[in-house]
């Protein structure tokens, strides 16, 4: 993905279209020092919401340009915030919890496990007798 700062469109239904982008940031001027974070920016009808993933113990965010938007809590537990399906799952989960729509900053880690579970449930298992993966 060439330009992570461009606004992309996520059509939820015929009346709801979010504009979104992903960015990697350092610190926020509020005493956090050089804390890295990946931020999913959502805009709906001019109202901005940020879903923030801050680095911390057991919580990894991206550091290099090629991996901006990859957040993880361990091996096999990764979300790529640049994928429209992941963004849709985050929007659906936040909406189900009554957090969207609305101007706010949301802690992405509070949504992480639920979104990861949604992705696992949507991924079909390998058919019996299939050879092991790559």
Question: Mind explaining what this structure looks like?
Answer:
The chain is an alpha+beta fold and 134 residues long. It has one domain (8-121). It is 20% helix and 35% strand. The protein has two helices and seven strands; from the N terminus they run ββββββαβα. The chain has helices at 84-96, 109-122, and strands at 8-13, 16-26, 36-44, 47-54, 70-74, 77-80, 104-107. It has a five-stranded mixed beta sheet. α1 crosses α2 (109-122). The two termini are 24 Å apart. The model has no long low-confidence stretch (mean pLDDT 85).
Instruction: Please give the largest β-sheet.
Output: 5 strands, mixed
Extended strand count: 7
Mean pLDDT: 85
Q: If helices are DSSP runs of H or I spanning 4 or more residues, what is the number of helices? A: 2
**How large, in whole angstroms, is the Cα Rg?**
16 Å
- Helix % is 10-25%
Low-confidence parts, pLDDT < 50 over ≥5 residues? none
How many domains is the backbone divided into?
1
Shape: globular
Q: What is the strand content?
A: 35-45%
Q: Which strand order do you get reading across the main beta sheet?
A: 1-2-3-4-7
Order of helices and strands: EEEEEEHEH
* Category by helix and strand content: alpha+beta
Distance, first to last CA: 24 Å
Task: Considering the chains and any ligands shown, give keywords for the structure.
134 residues, two-stranded antiparallel ribbon, 20% helix, 2 helices, five-stranded mixed β-sheet, alpha+beta, single chain
